[in-house]
Amino acid sequence: MADQKQSKLFSEITEHLLQDDVPSYYLNTLSNDPAWRKYPFSLLLKLKQTEQSRKYHPEGNVWNHTVLVVDEAARVRNESKNPKAFMWASLLHDIGKPDTTQWRKGRITSYDHDRVGADLCVRFLEELTNEEAFIKTVRGLVRYHMHMLYILKELPYGDLVHLLRESDIFDCALLSKCDRLGRTGADVLEEEDNYKRYLTRLIEAKERMQQKSGNGAVNRN
Fold it and tell me: Is the distance from CB of 163 to CB of 172 less than 8 angstroms?
């Protein structure tokens, strides 16, 4: 468990994530603080050293992308069912990229960063808090944040069954939208359309699952 200084820092970050209109101002300043050289915050420091494909991420390294996603998430956090978990998931969603990024056939890839990141975010948060339900919720959002791409493009990496069981579909879709918008030059209209189509697919799948178990329709509120 974290020492007193780290626990205080966790609380301060949480406050900024939940209160700031543009949390990246605070996060970018904090990322230069020596406190981020100490585990578990050092896991976030690694994001600055992890490059991405400029084709998909013209904004640059993973940290640059992450703070853009956090700012997008801040704009819609009041739509989330669990704003604290949602905002922390936006900060930790790509924490698995440093361990999975490599050059393959002349291009940068980060296959399985969602799976690796799900486990890493648990270890990260367990150093700072004993809120088990909170950690579990963040893990689900990080684990399935790539599924909008997987499902809409019918890629073989999706795991819809476990997504429905382990994550709130509305927050999951909302985070995916923020992830897509959190890049330089994102097409807002296209991503809004993707978000609506993805959420519709999730709602329909959830309703089918609940009908099979006799639980009725999905609560959309």
Answer: yes
